[in-house]
UniProtKB/TrEMBL annotation:
TM stretches of this protein: 12-33, 76-96, 108-128, 140-160, 181-206, 239-260
Protein name, per record: Raffinose/stachyose/melibiose transport system permease protein
Compartments in which it is found: Cell membrane
SUPFAM superfamilies associated with the record: MetI-like
Gene source species: Nonomuraea solani
Length: 275
C-alpha cells in the first residue's frame, strides 16, 4: 500500500512538472517557427509552414545586429559579476564564520537584509551617476555583485562551517598569512559549493532583465534580455520573432542546467548538511 501511494505521488509530481515546464516550452518553440500571421493567433496549432531560418536571421539582423552585441555584453557581465561574487563572498563567509562576535552578528544581519529588503532603483541610479558609472557595463557589474553577494555568502558560510579550525591553526604555524591561508588552504576545499554558486549565479545574472533595463538603457550596453523589446510595440507585436529571440536567449542557461544540474544539487545539499 505504501509503495502504491509513493508511485502515485511520483506520477502526480511528474505530470505536474510536465504541465508547468514542458507545455510552456512547447508553446514557445511552436510560436518561434511560425510565420507572423499564424503566430499572432497565439495557439497550439501546428505551423502551416516552417520559416525557421528566416525568423532566425530576422532576429539576429534586427537593429544592426543588436542581439550579437547583447550576447557579448551578457557574457562579459556574467563572467565578471560571477568572478567577483565568488571571491568576495567566499572571503566574507570565511571571516564571518571564523570570527564570531558583535561585529559578526551585525554583518550577518546585513547579509540577511540583502536577501529580504528589495533593491531600490532610484537611489542606486543616483549613486551610479555620482560615481560616473551610470549607463556603463562596469556600473551594471557592480550592481549585480551587490545584489548577488548575500545569497553566495550564505552558501559559502554553511560549507565553511564544516572545515575544522585545526587546518587554520596548522597553516598559521607553518607561516601562512591571512590571504595565503584562505587561497592556499580554504578556497580549494570549497570547490563543490563554488561550482554551485557559479552555476546558479551565472543563470541569475544572464537572465536578469530589470537591472540592465534601468541601469544601462540604450543599445550600446544592452543585454540579451533587453532585446525582447525589439519585437514588441503598443500596436503590433511580432510574436514569432519575439519567441524566436526567447528561444535563443534560453539556450545557454538551459544547457548549463542540463549538463550541471547534478553539481548544483550536490553543492547545495553538501552546504545544507555541513551547515
Amino acid at each position: 500500500m505504501r509503495t502504491l501511494k509513493r508511485f502515485g505521488a511520483e506520477t502526480a509530481a511528474l505530470v505536474l512538472a510536465t504541465v508547468i515546464f514542458l507545455v510552456p516550452f512547447s508553446f514557445m518553440l511552436l510560436t518561434a517557427v511560425k510565420d507572423r500571421s499564424q503566430a499572432a493567433d497565439l495557439d497550439f496549432a501546428w505551423p502551416a509552414n516552417w520559416p525557421i531560418v528566416r525568423n532566425f536571421m530576422d532576429v539576429v539582423e534586427a537593429r544592426d545586429y543588436v542581439l550579437l552585441r547583447a550576447f557579448v555584453n551578457s557574457t562579459i557581465l556574467t563572467v565578471a559579476s560571477v568572478a567577483l561574487i565568488v571571491i568576495f563572498a567566499a572571503m566574507a563567509a570565511f571571516v564571518l564564520q571564523r570570527r564570531a562576535g558583535k561585529a559578526g552578528s551585525l554583518a550577518n544581519f546585513l547579509v540577511l537584509s540583502g536577501l529580504i529588503i528589495p533593491p531600490a532603483i532610484v537611489p542606486t541610479i543616483w549613486l551610479l551617476q555620482a560615481l560616473g558609472l551610470f549607463k556603463t557595463l562596469p556600473g551594471l557589474i557592480l550592481v549585480e555583485v551587490a545584489f548577488g553577494l548575500s545569497y553566495a555568502v550564505l552558501l559559502f558560510r554553511a560549507f565553511i562551517a564544516a572545515i575544522p579550525r585545526e587546518l587554520d591553526e596548522a597553516a598559521q604555524i607553518d607561516g601562512c598569512s591571512g590571504l595565503r591561508l584562505f587561497f592556499r588552504v580554504i578556497f580549494p576545499l570549497l570547490r563543490p559549493v563554488t561550482l554551485t554558486v557559479i552555476l546558479t549565479t551565472s543563470v541569475a545574472v544572464f537572465n536578469d532583465f530589470v537591472n540592465p533595463l534601468y541601469f544601462t538603457p540604450g543599445n550600446e550596453n544592452a543585454t540579451v534580455q533587453v532585446t525582447l523589446y525589439n519585437f514588441q510595440s503598443q500596436y503590433s507585436t511580432q510574436w514569432n520573432l519575439l519567441f524566436m529571440d526567447i528561444v535563443l536567449i534560453t539556450i545557454p542557461p538551459l544547457l548549463l542546467f542540463v549538463f550541471f544540474n547534478r553539481k548544483i544539487v550536490a553543492g547545495m545539499t553538501a552546504g545544507a548538511i555541513k551547515g
